[in-house]
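Note to self: the last two entries modelled the partners one at a time, which told us nothing about the interface. This time every component goes in together.
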Amino acid sequence: MIAIIDYKAGNLTSVQRALASIGRDSVITASPSEVLAAERIIFPGVGAAGTAMFDLMRLKLDRALVKAFGRGTPILGICLGTQIVMERSEENHTRCLGLIKGEVLRFPENIAEPGGGKLKVPHMGWNRVNLKRKHPVFDGIDPRSEFYFVHSYYPGPREALNLLGETLHGITFASVLASSNLVAVQFHPEKSGRPGLRLLSNFCGWDGNDHA
Amino acid sequence: MLSKRIIPCLDVRDGKLTKGIKFKGNVDIGDPVEMAAFYYEEGADELVFYDITASYERRDIMIETVRKVAERIFIPFSVGGGIRTVEDMRLVLLAGAEKVSINSSAIRKPGLIAEGATAFGSQAIVLGMDVKRVSPSQKIPSGYEMVIDGGRTFTGLDALAWAREGERLGAGEICLNSIDADGTQQGYELRLTERIATNVNIPVIASGGAGALEHIHHVFTQGKADAALIASITHYGTHSIREIKSYLHEKGIKVRMTW
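The predicted structure of the combined assembly is written out below.
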């Protein structure tokens, strides 16, 4: 069973519906034991880091996630979930799960496109991902594919090995992270059309081995 | 680098698709769920549904439509029309929409923008603006006035001031519709679009007037829009989404070409 972690951070039914469209059953759960029993885990989220960590700790889901990660359960982080796997976030000065070393930073003010036009924050809309290396979760996805983003903060992994993909929005930021059985994407695969569904489908078939 | 978004707009009444010309003489052209699936496959970047169902009591029909659409398409879509309370927003978002758009109700009760942003996040709240050109005055210095009730009622609010206020209250995006250009297919209101887009820090979707490929090109280059709402140009088969995107791509506009 695929567990979609429910910590009151955003609309989880869209992830569940996307999984259903590719023939995968999932359960939306806030139960640590159900998370630990799951064959794989999706860790989504929309909202602010501070509230999210507070709710995860209150529901004891923080410890369940760390434990599941240690056990080798395949985990997919999405959007805020991707930021929460880092050590800490600039947003509300939040201490996070620390599954990947590094901090979550806010886009700087006054970022501009190469032509000089002012760029807006949040980074919202469709953008590309430049993969730094191969990964099973991106198998068969056209490198020109674009994904749907909505965020004002981005993860800054400290170690190059954890940087799987980069995206340009005024600055080049880490949009995909990987660490053994964890893959974390800053975009929303459930809202990214066919390439997004392909990514979810790849994740559902992934054994959790990074091959890095 | 972000792609400029192409967003078909589907007007829905009593669960069926319509397309109004200047909000008058709506003609039925089909099933919104099938049309949404069609545009999804064709490469639309996002969809907008506008519910023009007259009776508030029949809103459950729209919720059912939203639910069916959400099972078929996996790109963001927003729903506007008749959303008056945070509870209305919740129903639409839970049914599977990514965003809700509020228009007249935000003008009648500006607190609704802030309430919605607090409850669901700014990214879920689109401020819909219906705008008419007027003579610039002390009250309307930009020469663009906010109108409501489908363009029938003038509000005395300056469009530029209202856009800034909407951003301050927590709107995550603006959908800017020119009533003068809507349905004419003579091109977007470029001056209005540019004024608003360069004076707020949230994305602006230009709406009203797209009838030819160059109109869409101009709304990005001259209007500085982040996204273009389209209706008649694709609904009646004049151009496909792929044709629109290929044209823009050749003109050097960054659009999503792989889907």
